[in-house]
Design goal:
By secondary structure, this protein is mainly alpha-helical. The chain is built from 14 helices and three strands. The protein has a three-stranded antiparallel beta sheet with strand order 1-2-3. It starts with 35 loop residues before the first helix and ends in an 8-residue tail after the last helix.
């Protein structure tokens, strides 16, 4: 079997491209796509305005198409319900591993011959998500008139009780351990100093700003601006493109602005950005200047969570479960943590607008006044409180 290639490089033989698939709809299709990959790309294109969703969906359909061609030897539009059961088992243990799974610690580019579609077997939650994405894709292809039926529609749906909210955010005592782990990062060399400074700035954005990873990667320093409120006071804001490319104003509290100045000074930049500054909100450590990658953010957060968990575990056997909870924490947990902590002290409308759960406008004087009240509530109630100045 040939090594897998990414979706944009995969060469699909004509007899496996689905142009004559047994599950192709007999009625007129609403797509111009004549083969499976083109149809899948048409479905993916609907999510181009949401980079995080697009990347996640592409990953799953890429794995699936590769399995169809390289492992099952069947076109996507030839698959039956039984084929999908085989794919379910494959996701639990992708074999042969040398063809499907990347080596430990490897992060090759998608165009590298060492690239593989899996980091390892999928756990229960990842497996559910993968099949849910494929089910959505199949359902859309049926509605579009490309496929006659959805082979996943016959799958047995297991009732899954929703996880309690407490499982996805950190209580105050655990959050304090996370902050301590960030502040304890080594800074004896120039690279360590820059890395520690970047980590502190990243956690400040994730917590004070409640930003999503995709928002951090896309934002630029020029998004910071000051505005005189209707009460004559000047406030700082960060304008970002949120989920679905919707604009959002995030209150840049005095604490967040202090951390911005701290980070920029560490990079030998001016203390405050100018309008139109295209410097990434969080940067790589090496030249040329470019935004930190999503994977690098997740790895940095997991490193901090492991350090915080180790500190908790060192207190004794009674803290093992809590330490394991900390180790499970992902980047998005910080956003949930920020929302949970803020909601205890501020109106829920403040939380909703800060996190971008509703559209906001920046043109109306009335909404400006409403924004100013939200800014004041955030400043009064929401602080990270780094221990070092």
């Amino acid at each position: 079997m040939n090594a897998p290639a990414s979706l944009d490089q995969l060469m699909i033989p004509v007899h496996l491209d689905g142009s004559c698939g047994r599950n192709r709809a007999s009625s007129r299709s609403q797509l111009t796509a004549a083969d499976d990959r083109s149809a899948v790309l048409a479905w993916l294109a609907r999510y181009l305005d949401s980079p995080a969703t697009f990347a996640n969906y592409r990953k799953e359909v890429e794995r699936f198409l590769l399995w169809c061609v390289l492992q099952r030897g069947a076109a996507l539009s030839d698959l039956t319900h039984e084929d999908l059961l085989l794919y379910h088992r494959f996701l639990e243990n992708p074999q042969p591993a040398e063809h499907w799974v990347m080596g430990p610690g490897q992060k090759p580019a998608r165009n590298s011959p060492r690239w593989r579609p899996f980091a390892g077997p999928l756990g229960p939650s990842s497996l559910r998500q993968a099949l849910s994405i494929l089910n959505a894709m199949f359902s859309w292809l049926v509605r579009a008139g490309y496929l006659a039926g959805n082979p996943l529609a016959l799958s047995r749906r297991k009732h899954r009780q929703a996880a309690p909210r407490v499982s996805r955010f950190l209580p105050d005592e655990h959050w304090d351990l996370v902050k301590a782990a960030v502040e304890a990062m080594p800074a004896s060399t120039e690279r360590e100093r820059l890395r520690a400074s970047r980590c502190r700035w990243l956690f400040s954005l994730l917590y004070i700003g409640g930003l999503r990873v995709s928002e951090i990667c896309a934002a630029r320093m020029g998004g910071f601006f000051s505005r005189c409120g209707v009460d004559g006071r000047t406030r700082w804001w960060l304008e970002i493109a949120g989920k679905g490319n919707k604009p959002r104003l995030v209150p840049a509290t005095g604490e967040l602005m202090t951390e911005l100045v701290r980070y920029r000074n560490a990079l030998a930049l001016s203390s405050l950005p100018l309008e139109g500054d295209e410097t990434p909100l969080v940067m790589t450590l090496i030249a040329p200047i470019k935004p930190i990658a999503r994977s690098a953010i997740h790895e940095l957060v997991k490193e901090v969570m492991r350090a915080a968990a180790a500190a908790l575990r060192s207190r004794g056997s009674g803290f093992q479960a809590a330490a394991a909870h900390l180790e499970d924490a992902s980047t998005h947990w910080i956003r949930h943590t920020a929302a949970s902590h803020l909601s205890e002290k501020a109106d829920l409308k403040v939380v909703r607008d800060n996190l971008g759960h509703a559209n906001i406008s920046t043109t109306s004087i009335y909404l400006h006044a409403d924004d100013d009240a939200r800014h004041d509530a955030t400043v009064a109630a929401h602080r990270l409180r780094w221990r070092t100045p």
